[in-house]
Queue: 3 jobs
Job 1
Amino acid sequence: MEFQAGATVAALQSGLPLEPLENRILLCHALGLTRVGLITQSERAITQAEADALGALVARRLHGEPIAYIVGRREFFGLDFLVTGAVLIPRPDTELLVELALERLAPQGRVLDMGTGSGAIAVALAHTRRDAQVTALDVSPAALDVARQNAVTHGARVRLVQSDWFGAIEGERFDMVVSNPPYIASGDDHLSQGDLRFEPAGALTDHADGLSALRTIVKGAPAHLEAGGWLLMEHGYDQAQQVRDLLTAHGYDEVASWRDLAGIERVTGGRRAA
């Protein structure tokens, strides 16, 4: 999409073919302005270089690319996270998992975040609870690089491990295991819609029934949990009962599900039997 030099910031803010919030985000990114700057410099005319940069960003968005990938940032749990195409975009729904973990985390607690991606969960936990010992693993080196940058940015003490689930942490134990694993079933229509079209497939789907990663975690976690330690997992909107059944079948206590802000059972967990 093409824009011309001389257009004012105010005219562009009202005239871009996107939702108002997206207009503002892309304008700020292209012009190097803050939200306040959009107001104080509303009558400033843009240069041709700025017009070209803005046009390229808008074209990417009109093609469907997520805003978070275009600007390379997304807020999560009050923190600004780097995101790239190597990781899922952190979503507000996942903040419920962080809140539940913080409520149950003992002083100096040891936490394992499985499939950390951008590190959003692990960094949020370590940033909020400076006393915690947080380990985060992922099979993807590219994802771990993003997580490492986010940990450094926020001064969060997170140990990062490349591992295919429990493979690289044999013999280690934790007070809590948390995970937002791939849980969309292969062939689900959502995978070809919206932002999901651009996100890494391996972080979205298990290429099976949507429960295989959850089964692996539920089965393997007891060997890595202290007695009474919690396992908390995010899952799909219609999977809560199945995940509760998995936890119960593997002998977990206090099995329960918790609802997100939309009223959907989004996180399910249980405690390793004492």
Job 2
Amino acid sequence: MNLWQSIIPESLEFPQRLLVLLVIPLLAGAYILLSRRRNRKGMRFSNTALLQIAMPGASRWRRHLAVAMALLSLVLMAVAWAKPIGLDRERVERATVVVVLDVSQSMAATDVEPSRIDAAKTAAIDFVGTIPETYNVSLVTLSGNPSVVVPPTTNHASVNNAIDRLELRDATALGESIIVALNALGQAPAADNGEPPPGAIVILSDGGSTEGRPGIQAAQQAKADEVPIYTIAYGTANGYVELDGQREPVPVEDAELREVAEATGGEALEAGSAEQLADVYEQLSTEIGYELVQRDVTARYAMYAAVFALLAALSTISLSARWPS
């Protein structure tokens, strides 16, 4: 949830109560008229130095600020009276996370020490360790022949053991791997209410498809199933592998991965080192497994109103205080 969502309510239970806000422009207009009348009276002073002493610029600005904060407090009180409904992040009790790891030959590149695949295994195992015990975790390999290595299970140790045993294969079929991951999500046991638990797919890869259906085509299916896909483009532009005695460059390619993530409402991330990959997985652990729920946030807006009312009061007090020069 971003800052805008925390400030602007999703809806109001009694929106008609906001009609009381019509009094705010009337109060603001009255203040402006009174200020102008006061300024006109001030111009009658023949001694401008005496006028500056009577109403210095700093005092005028503090007076304007006090009024502005008082009006803002009234606005927030009106919103609170309308009983705003906001969005809050709440961790769900059960969910399914499918970890998709690229095991294509390009993952043997050593631009990431000790190699892309070894660093990816270590980071993925650490990531699984951060997933709540009540969550199902599944492991899918990303290659020319993707497969479900471990179906959804709460036995996270078995997932980590399977990650450690992964071996490299040929080709990269990103779209097919997404379909296999979606099928894995379908194998997760239903929740107590009979509904399937929410799911997410996390894909780590160093490039786009070399065969099979395009990733965006499979992403459309994930979008229809309301499954966000988080992608991690892993590696650097300087990666290479030795194939048949020849050096083949395998720079990381993130375009298709980014397209997949954006199409499903997930997030496209990048990592060019083992340390960055660990940070990316740590970020994902704080995002996956949460859902936005509607809550009555009247108290929040009442608190905002009280804060601005207090600031307005302090500003008013400062007007009458004599500060040492």
Job 3
Amino acid sequence: MAETKKKVHFIIERQDSPTSAPYTEEFEVDYRPALNVVAALMEIQKNPVTKDGKKTTAVVWECNCLEKVCGACMMVINGKARQACAALIDHLEQPIRLAPARTFPVIRDLAIDRSVMFESLKRVQAWVKVDGTWEVHNDAPRQNPKTAETAYEISRCMTCGCCMEACPNVNAGSDFIGPAPTVQAHLFNLHPIGAYSKEERLNALMDKGGISSCGNSQNCVQACPKDIKLTEYLAQLNRDTNKQALKNLFNK
């Protein structure tokens, strides 16, 4: 008697367009060791047939690096926002439920538009203004060794959006720009050249939707796939903006 192949059962929330209603479809793929969610979606893409044998369209999702670096494959897996490339089937309870992160506009199926995060990075000036170079090594500004470790940790942010999906203060009724863009302001304030624009970043964070909109729920730090100490840096930014507010008051 032929041995029955082990199957992996998926329930996927789908949406045909940004304005259409969501619906679910169920799929099965053959199990294999070290299978992750992205690889399983690729199998469904090859042969988009539902669990009950109905031919359908291929599920749409995003992926790029496939090694937990780019953040593109973020989706809600069994109720938790995470990276699909790092979600191993062996570690997930079945049926595996996949859904888009609805903090962001849905483009189609599991593909979302994360533009709001990139626009927020512009708001906090998440870059270093460099208009020249230094020919002599000793003349170039150096990163303080005491802050280099913190800067490196924050720089690992993938702008995936897991923290945004987990944050209760990021929703349609709020204008909070979210944990990831906010903490990036701290990263560039630590940079020896970026520090020249520190006041501008802090003033931007004092505007509507900035640091004061953070409710300190601390969901973000639990959701971050890179284990960035988001709440610690949000607290530091809160102190920095308070100091800047006093400075602005006395400089009037």
